[in-house]
Amino acid sequence: MPECAASHLKFLDLFLSSGFKSLKKIDDLKDDLEKVGRDALLPGLGADKAKKLLAACVAETSLLSAIYWICCSYALLGHEVDSERRQRILTFIASCRGASGAFAPHPAQREELLSTVSAVQLAVLLGEPELLEVSKVAAYIRSLQLPDGSFTPFRGAGESQGDCRFTFAALCAMTLLKQLGGSDAEHPDDSELCDAHAATADWLLQCQNLDGGFGCRPRECESHAGHTFCCLAALSLLGRLDGLSHRGRGRLLRWLAARQTPQGGMNGRPGKKPDVCYTWWTLAAAQLAESLVDSRLSDIFDLNALQKFVHLCMADQGGIGPHPEDDPDPFHTFFGLAGLSLCAGDHGVLALERMEPTLVLPVGLLKGSAKVS
Question: Domain named Prenyltransferase alpha-alpha toroid: which ranges (predicted)?
Answer without folding.
Answer: 58-360
